[in-house]
Specification:
144 residues, 5-stranded mixed β-sheet, mainly beta
Protein backbone atom coordinates (compact mmCIF):
# COMPACT_ATOMS: atom_id res chain seq x y z
CA UNK A 1 0.00 0.00 0.00
CA UNK A 2 1.52 3.40 -0.94
CA UNK A 3 2.44 5.82 1.86
CA UNK A 4 -0.17 8.45 0.87
CA UNK A 5 -2.94 5.81 1.14
CA UNK A 6 -1.74 4.87 4.62
CA UNK A 7 -1.69 8.55 5.62
CA UNK A 8 -5.21 9.07 4.23
CA UNK A 9 -6.48 5.99 6.06
CA UNK A 10 -4.87 7.18 9.30
CA UNK A 11 -6.53 10.60 8.88
CA UNK A 12 -9.94 8.94 8.35
CA UNK A 13 -9.48 6.79 11.46
CA UNK A 14 -8.45 9.84 13.52
CA UNK A 15 -11.51 11.76 12.30
CA UNK A 16 -13.81 8.82 13.14
CA UNK A 17 -12.51 8.56 16.70
CA UNK A 18 -12.70 12.34 17.07
CA UNK A 19 -16.41 12.22 16.19
CA UNK A 20 -17.07 9.31 18.56
CA UNK A 21 -15.50 11.07 21.57
CA UNK A 22 -16.92 14.51 20.81
CA UNK A 23 -20.40 13.60 22.10
CA UNK A 24 -23.68 15.41 21.65
CA UNK A 25 -24.10 19.17 21.97
CA UNK A 26 -25.89 18.64 25.29
CA UNK A 27 -24.34 15.95 27.39
CA UNK A 28 -26.43 16.40 30.55
CA UNK A 29 -24.85 17.36 33.86
CA UNK A 30 -21.15 18.00 33.50
CA UNK A 31 -18.29 17.45 35.87
CA UNK A 32 -18.03 21.21 36.32
CA UNK A 33 -15.72 23.98 35.30
CA UNK A 34 -11.96 23.32 35.27
CA UNK A 35 -9.93 26.46 34.56
CA UNK A 36 -6.71 26.30 32.56
CA UNK A 37 -3.47 27.17 34.38
CA UNK A 38 -0.02 28.35 33.28
CA UNK A 39 2.86 28.79 35.72
CA UNK A 40 6.39 30.07 35.29
CA UNK A 41 9.47 31.20 37.21
CA UNK A 42 11.31 34.52 36.81
CA UNK A 43 14.80 35.47 38.02
CA UNK A 44 14.17 39.23 38.33
CA UNK A 45 12.17 39.50 40.44
CA UNK A 46 12.78 36.04 41.91
CA UNK A 47 9.17 34.83 41.84
CA UNK A 48 6.73 32.19 40.73
CA UNK A 49 3.79 33.38 38.64
CA UNK A 50 0.57 31.44 38.16
CA UNK A 51 -1.95 32.52 35.52
CA UNK A 52 -5.49 31.09 35.69
CA UNK A 53 -8.26 31.58 33.12
CA UNK A 54 -11.45 32.44 35.02
CA UNK A 55 -13.89 33.91 32.50
CA UNK A 56 -17.37 34.69 33.78
CA UNK A 57 -16.38 34.51 37.43
CA UNK A 58 -16.99 37.28 39.94
CA UNK A 59 -13.48 38.20 41.17
CA UNK A 60 -14.84 38.68 44.70
CA UNK A 61 -15.76 34.97 44.80
CA UNK A 62 -12.28 33.68 43.91
CA UNK A 63 -10.47 32.03 46.84
CA UNK A 64 -6.67 31.82 46.73
CA UNK A 65 -4.84 29.98 49.51
CA UNK A 66 -1.11 29.30 49.63
CA UNK A 67 0.41 26.71 51.93
CA UNK A 68 3.57 24.66 52.00
CA UNK A 69 4.56 24.60 48.30
CA UNK A 70 0.91 24.52 47.23
CA UNK A 71 -1.45 27.11 45.79
CA UNK A 72 -5.19 26.41 45.77
CA UNK A 73 -7.44 28.39 43.42
CA UNK A 74 -11.15 27.81 44.09
CA UNK A 75 -14.54 29.31 43.37
CA UNK A 76 -17.62 28.72 41.28
CA UNK A 77 -18.79 29.77 37.85
CA UNK A 78 -22.56 30.12 38.06
CA UNK A 79 -24.87 29.66 35.10
CA UNK A 80 -26.79 32.90 34.50
CA UNK A 81 -30.49 32.65 35.26
CA UNK A 82 -32.65 33.46 32.24
CA UNK A 83 -36.41 33.32 32.79
CA UNK A 84 -38.36 31.22 30.31
CA UNK A 85 -35.37 30.02 28.31
CA UNK A 86 -35.13 26.64 26.60
CA UNK A 87 -31.56 25.68 25.79
CA UNK A 88 -30.77 24.51 22.26
CA UNK A 89 -27.08 24.04 22.96
CA UNK A 90 -25.09 23.73 26.20
CA UNK A 91 -21.30 23.68 25.85
CA UNK A 92 -20.11 26.08 28.56
CA UNK A 93 -19.08 24.33 31.76
CA UNK A 94 -20.34 25.76 35.05
CA UNK A 95 -20.07 24.77 38.67
CA UNK A 96 -17.62 24.81 41.54
CA UNK A 97 -13.93 24.33 40.84
CA UNK A 98 -10.74 23.85 42.80
CA UNK A 99 -7.27 23.65 41.30
CA UNK A 100 -4.27 22.65 43.40
CA UNK A 101 -0.99 23.85 41.91
CA UNK A 102 2.25 22.39 43.23
CA UNK A 103 4.92 25.06 43.66
CA UNK A 104 8.51 24.02 42.91
CA UNK A 105 10.01 26.42 45.49
CA UNK A 106 9.19 27.93 48.86
CA UNK A 107 7.29 31.21 48.60
CA UNK A 108 6.60 34.18 50.87
CA UNK A 109 2.79 34.44 51.22
CA UNK A 110 3.04 37.89 52.82
CA UNK A 111 4.44 39.29 49.56
CA UNK A 112 1.99 37.49 47.27
CA UNK A 113 -0.20 39.50 44.90
CA UNK A 114 -3.17 38.54 42.74
CA UNK A 115 -4.67 40.65 39.94
CA UNK A 116 -7.87 39.90 38.00
CA UNK A 117 -8.17 41.42 34.55
CA UNK A 118 -10.23 40.40 31.50
CA UNK A 119 -11.20 37.02 32.98
CA UNK A 120 -7.64 36.07 33.96
CA UNK A 121 -6.14 36.08 37.45
CA UNK A 122 -2.36 36.45 37.71
CA UNK A 123 -0.81 35.43 41.03
CA UNK A 124 2.77 36.48 41.78
CA UNK A 125 4.50 34.62 44.62
CA UNK A 126 7.93 35.85 45.73
CA UNK A 127 10.42 32.99 46.22
CA UNK A 128 12.06 32.83 49.65
CA UNK A 129 15.06 31.06 51.15
CA UNK A 130 13.51 31.03 54.65
CA UNK A 131 11.83 27.67 54.20
CA UNK A 132 8.22 26.71 53.59
CA UNK A 133 5.34 28.85 54.80
CA UNK A 134 3.64 27.50 57.91
CA UNK A 135 -0.14 27.08 57.78
CA UNK A 136 -2.46 28.44 55.13
CA UNK A 137 -2.49 32.03 53.90
CA UNK A 138 -5.24 33.71 51.90
CA UNK A 139 -4.35 36.02 49.03
CA UNK A 140 -6.70 38.88 48.16
CA UNK A 141 -7.63 39.34 44.51
CA UNK A 142 -7.37 42.92 43.25
CA UNK A 143 -9.07 44.16 40.09
CA UNK A 144 -6.37 45.00 37.57
Amino acid sequence: MPRRDIDRLQAEIDELFSEVWRGPRYAGPRQGFRPSVDSFHTAEPHALTVVVELPGIDPASIRLVVGERTLVVAGERRRPKVEGCVYQQMEIAYGPFSRRIQLPEDVDPAGAEARYEHGVVTITLPVTDRGPARGRHAIAVVLG
